[in-house]
Design a protein that fits this description.
- It is a peripheral membrane protein.
- GO terms for molecular function: ATP binding.
- It comes from Raoultibacter timonensis.
- About 35% of the residues lie in helices and about 30% in strands.
- Helix 3 runs parallel beside helix 5, helix 4 packs antiparallel against helix 5 and helix 5 packs parallel to helix 6.
- The strands form three sheets. It has a six-stranded mixed beta sheet, with helices on both faces. A four-stranded antiparallel beta sheet has the order 2-1-4-5, with no helix packed on it. A two-stranded antiparallel sheet has the order 11-12.
- It is globular.
- The chain is α/β, with parallel strands linked by helices.
- The protein contains nine helices and twelve strands.
- Bound molecules: adenosine-5'-triphosphate.
- Adenosine-5'-triphosphate binds next to helix 1.
């Protein structure tokens, strides 16, 4: 089953077409990473999925429904998008996580018992309960990232899109974030789509990969299929060596 489908999408920022006739699909219940060199259009694609940008041609479907046919709150009940890390707002972790409930709130914006339950379980799942009263600005990068992931969990969507969730994190926090992603997928059946620069993390923690090169999808498939295709080597100009160990496979990448 397909969670998100991109059908013949074209998009340009100015006069020059940037994304042209892009088609791709993201499988439901899978962890898919979008990888590609700087500036190839990964974040643009995320914004198209989020409905922030309107394609000049083609359409994006979420659960079979065109994104632009949905109102903002309806879309936000289907897909939670965590944008690239920016300066953290001055608020507590709990207040941030409560923001994830906005698609379910009425005009007054107060939380009902069901909203509060979702906030509590999101705090617990992301492992940030003990920081609930902490100011986001005083957390470490890894703790803060988990707080933002908790906010997307409170949104209670089947699909979560993470744009560079490991930026600024040290190696341990990177792996913890990826393990959380895998747990959300395995235990809650979440479909995860993430943009990720660290190819080793993408290869280790994803089921599927989509490789982008300047506005196009050059290859998509399972990790093994994409590795065999040579699309990553082509896109990044690297060679990849897989190393097996009792801890699983890891990947070394060298300039070609
Ligand atoms: N708001 C904008 N207006 C004009 N051009 C833009 C805008 N946002 C992005 N671009 C351009 O579109 C291209 C793709 O940008 P995008 O951020 O989607 O790439 P990316 O693959 O996510 O890059 P990175 O890996 O560096 O984050 C880049 O050349 C960028 O300069």
């Amino acid at each position: 089953m397909t969670a998100v489908e991109i059908q013949g999408v074209s998009f340009s920022y100015g006069k020059m077409p940037f994304i042209e006739d892009l088609s791709a699909s993201f499988a439901a219940g899978a962890v898919t990473s979008i990888v590609g060199p700087n500036g190839c259009g990964k974040s643009t694609l995320v914004k198209l999925i989020d409905g922030l940008y309107r394609p000049q041609a083609g359409r994006v479907l979420i659960g079979g429904r065109p994104t632009l046919a949905m109102r903002g709150k309806e879309r936000a009940r289907k897909v939670a998008v965590l944008a690239q890390a920016s300066r953290p707002p001055a608020m507590t972790v709990e207040a941030l996580v409560a923001c994830g409930r906005y698609p379910y709130q009425c005009h007054e914006g107060c939380l009902g018992p069901e909203d509060k339950e979702h906030v509590e379980s999101a705090l617990a799942l992301a492992g940030v309960e003990r920081f609930r009263n902490h100011d986001l600005r005083h957390l470490s990068g890894g703790e803060r990232q988990r707080a933002f992931i908790a906010m997307t969990l409170a949104q209670d969507t089947g699909i979560i899109v993470l744009d560079e969730p490991t930026t600024y994190l040290d190696i341990r926090a990177c792996h913890e974030t990826m393990q959380l992603v895998r747990r959300l997928n395995a235990e809650m059946g979440k479909t995860i789509i993430m943009v990720i620069h660290d190819l080793d993390l993408a290869l280790r923690y994803s089921d599927n990969l989509m490789v982008m090169e300047r506005g196009i999808c050059s290859h998509a498939g399972t990790v093994d299929e994409v590795l065999e295709s040579g699309a990553i080597e082509h896109a990044f100009g690297v060679s990849i060596h897989a190393v097996g160990s009792s801890f699983g496979r890891s990947y070394s990448l060298f300039p070609a």
